[in-house]
Amino acid sequence: MTKILLINAGSSSLKWQLVTMPKERVIASGQVERLNLPGTIVKVAVNGKKTKEVVETLDEITAIDRVLKRLVTVGGVKTLDEVQAVGHRVVAGGTVFKEAIKLTPSRINQLQGLSELAPLHNPLEVRCIELLAQRLPGVPQYAVFDSSYFHGLPEKTAIYGIPYEWTKKYQIRRYGEHGISHQFLAARAAEQLDRPLSELNLITMHLGSGASITAVKQGQPFDTSMGMTPVTGVMMGTRSGDVDPSLVPYLMKRLSLETPEVVIQELNASSGLLGVSGVSSDMRDLHTAAKDNRRAQLALEMFVNQVVKLVGAYYTEIGGADALVFAGGIGEKDADIRAAIIDRLAVLGIQLDPELNTIGAEGPLQAKASSTAILLIPTNEELAMARDVWGLVSDEVVVK
User: Fold this and answer.
1) In CATH, what number does 2-150+383-399 get?
2) Where are the domains of the chain?
3) Known binding site for substrate: residues?
4) What is the architecture, at CATH level 2, of domain 193-376?
5) What tens digit of pLDDT does each residue of 151-169 get?
6) Which cofactor does the UniProt annotation name (predicted)?
7) pLDDT (tens digit, 9 = 90+) per residue, 3-35?
8) Binding residues
């Protein structure tokens, strides 16, 4: 039995699990929500007992230290020496890393070198890796990549309409993100529909502070909303989503900037729901503010519209869908956003059951007359990560 600590550091939250492998038993789990925002929420579950506290603002590093402390104090482990491996979700592996790896100093440096592909994520994830190396010295660490799932995209959806020589020489392509989640959602949808995944067309929606949508055709990823970096696709908590690339040099001139870094940073960290609303990057705050704040309402409307636009495009691109899948913090917990999205898709014959949607339990949400199934599936990136990490750990045990 091997105890593996899984760290999933996102743009606004940090999720974690301590699992035993190969039995896939979760000893303890938790989530830190509203990172870098006032009123950070810390949730922990151990043996069915759940606790929740609201604390002053935590960043990712202080959140990890709190997780390690809680692991011992709430009974996940007696001492941290019981942790035998650590697995990290890493967003961008580029063309360098196409599958899960064991981390070494040289590979950590390579990850740092890929920061341009995920400026909000890779540097953060490297800092988390380095911190865990300090806190758990000698414990092997592993990386599982979001981008791995999308290496098989067909070329017609994977590359951009730029000179083909640039595509090949500079490895410019749609890497996609949230791949760990989308792969899990597709497999889980096949289980819920009781059909082979290879027969299914699906549209999986990972909607949270980071949001992405993926078209799955006959069980394989066919298209996805995020591109070479995670700033593209639908607007997100702080990321702009798709913008005209000419916006970058235009703003450089208007702001008297000599390099594009400031604009790129603003598109990543000060745009999206936060930038439009001027209120918050958190959907819960926007629902509250929207009653009296037109910009907050506008941000909600824009988010819904952009999701609908992509889902409609993917629906035709893959020749119809057997199911739409909602996941992520917004997709799983926000019944109003789900209803607004499906209402706009009524032209496709897709209908939501209002009662099932309000209950919001895992499983089908569609009305009987719906042309397409609608599934709510809480994503479990940590389980998918655990399986990949265990594959590497068990191989090392066999070799020894």
Assistant:
1) 3.30.420.40
2) 2-150+383-399, 193-376
3) 89
4) 2-Layer Sandwich (3.30)
5) 999 999 999 999 999 999 9
6) Mg(2+); Mn(2+)
7) 999 998 876 788 899 999 999 999 999 988 888
8) 8, 15, 89, 206-210, 282-284, 381
